[in-house]
Design goal:
Blueprint lengths: L11 H15 L18 E6 L9 H8 L2 H4 L2 E6 L4 H9 L5 E5 H11 L3 E8 L4 E6 L15 E3 L5 H11 L10 E3 L7 H5 L5 E5 H9 L4 E5 L9 E6 H6 L1 H20 L4 H7 L10 H15 L12 H13 L15 H7 L1
Parallel strand pairs: 1-2, 1-3, 6-7, 6-8
Antiparallel strand pairs: 3-10, 4-10, 5-8, 5-9
Helix pairs in contact: 2-10, 8-12, 10-14
Length: about 350
C-alpha cells in the first residue's frame, strides 16, 4: 500500500480544493453509471492516484471509475490528486506518496533507462499521442525543422511534452538546446501568447486543440506521432509495489475497463459528465467543447482496437524505444523491460 499523500507537498488551499472535488464527485454516485458497491464487510484497499496535470476530460477513465463506484466495486478506496506536470506525478510514485500515476510513455522510458527508476507501466490508456503542435495560420510551424530559431511553448518543464519535443528535434538533426521553450501550461488561452508574438507555437493536449477549433481560432496543428510515434499515456507504479500488490493492480485496471466501457456506451456523455462534475475541469465549462474533446480521447483509447484497451502493443513500444535510442536519449535495448501485460490480461479474464 502506498504511504499517505503528504498535503505539504502542495499548497494547503490547493490540497483542500482537490479533496473537496473528490468528495463532491462521490455525491453523484447514485447515477445510472454507478455499479454495485463492494461486498459488505470487505476492508477496502486505500491507494492514491496522481494525474499528470490537474483534472482534464481526458482523465475520464479514472475520474468516472472513482465517482461511478467502479473502484469501490473492486474493493478499492482511491484518492485522486491533480498533479502539476508528468515529472511530478512520477516523483509521487517514486517517493511512495502515491501507488499509481499517469504519465507519458517517453517519460517512463527515460526514467527507467537513464535514471534506473524502479518503475513499470501496467497499462496504456492513450495508444497514440494526445499532444498536438499548434501554431497560427499564416505563421505555421509544420514540422520540427520549422522550429529552428523559434520559441516553443510547453506544458511543464521536464514533462512528457518537453521530452517529445526533444525527440522530434534530435531525430530531425536539430540540437534541442538551440530551440528555446517557455512553460505556458495546457490551456487554449495560451494561444494568445502566439498572437502576441511571445511564442511561435505550443504543444498541448487534444482537448485544448478541440476548444481552439470550436472557438474558430486560426490554428494549424499536427499530432506529435507524426515525428515521434511513441506510446502515449500510461499508468505506472513502482516495481516493488507491482510485485507486492499484484491483485491491487488487477483490480485497478478492471475498474478502468468497466469505466471505459460505460463512457463509450454513454453516447451523449450526459451521465459521464454528471459524474465528473465534482472535479474542477475547465473544459467542462463548455459542454460542447467537453463532448468533442472526449470523442477525440475515445479514439486514442481504442486506437489499437477495443480488444486491446489498456494493453501494451509490443511492436509500438519497440518502435518507440528504437526511436529514442536513435536520438541518443536512451541506450538501445528491448522494450519489454518497461511494461507488463500480466495485470491487464488478468483483468480481462
Amino acid at each position: 500500500m502506498s504511504r499517505p499523500f503528504d498535503p505539504n507537498r502542495i499548497p494547503r488551499r490547493e490540497f483542500l480544493r482537490r479533496t473537496a472535488g473528490s468528495a463532491a464527485a462521490l455525491a453523484t454516485a447514485g447515477l445510472t453509471l454507478q455499479v454495485a458497491s463492494r461486498t459488505a464487510g470487505a476492508a477496502p484497499i486505500s491507494l492514491t492516484f496522481v494525474t499528470p496535470f490537474g483534472f482534464l476530460v481526458g482523465y475520464a477513465p479514472t475520474l468516472v471509475a472513482k465517482a461511478g463506484g467502479y473502484f469501490e466495486k473492486e474493493g478499492l478506496d482511491v484518492t485522486i490528486y491533480g498533479g502539476r506536470g508528468a515529472a511530478m506525478a512520477v516523483q509521487q510514485v517514486l517517493s511512495g506518496q502515491a501507488l499509481l500515476s499517469r504519465t507519458g510513455g517517453v517519460d517512463l522510458i527515460k526514467a527507467v533507462a537513464n535514471a534506473k527508476a524502479p518503475l513499470v507501466s501496467i497499462g496504456v490508456i492513450d495508444q497514440g499521442s494526445p499532444f498536438h503542435v499548434v501554431s497560427k495560420v499564416g505563421k505555421e510551424i509544420r514540422n520540427p525543422k520549422d522550429m529552428v530559431g523559434k520559441t516553443i511553448g510547453i506544458i511543464s518543464q521536464g514533462g512528457a511534452v518537453e521530452n517529445l519535443l526533444d525527440i522530434m528535434l534530435v531525430n530531425s538533426g536539430i540540437d534541442p538546446k538551440s530551440v528555446p521553450r517557455q512553460v505556458v501550461g495546457n490551456s487554449p488561452g495560451a494561444f494568445g501568447l502566439i498572437e502576441q508574438g511571445r511564442i511561435d507555437c505550443y504543444i498541448i493536449s487534444v482537448g485544448s486543440v478541440v476548444a481552439l477549433r470550436l472557438a474558430k481560432q486560426p490554428i494549424h496543428s499536427w499530432n506529435t506521432d507524426e515525428h515521434a510515434p511513441i506510446p502515449g499515456q500510461v499508468y505506472v507504479t513502482s516495481r516493488e509495489d507491482a510485485e507486492k500488490q499484484p491483485e491491487t493492480m488487477v483490480k485497478f485496471l478492471r475498474a478502468l475497463l468497466h469505466s471505459i466501457a460505460a463512457i463509450t456506451a454513454d453516447k451523449d456523455f450526459k451521465q459521464t459528465f454528471d459524474l465528473m462534475k465534482g472535479f474542477e475541469i475547465s473544459e467542462m465549462k463548455d459542454l460542447k467543447v467537453a463532448t468533442e474533446a472526449l470523442k477525440a480521447e475515445l479514439e486514442l483509447w481504442d486506437e489499437a482496437g477495443a480488444s486491446n484497451r489498456l494493453r501494451h502493443i509490443p511492436e509500438k513500444w519497440q518502435t518507440g524505444v528504437d526511436l529514442m535510442a536513435k536520438a541518443g536519449m536512451i541506450p538501445a535495448g528491448t522494450a519489454e523491460v518497461y511494461y507488463t501485460n500480466s495485470f491487464i490480461d488478468k483483468a480481462r479474464a
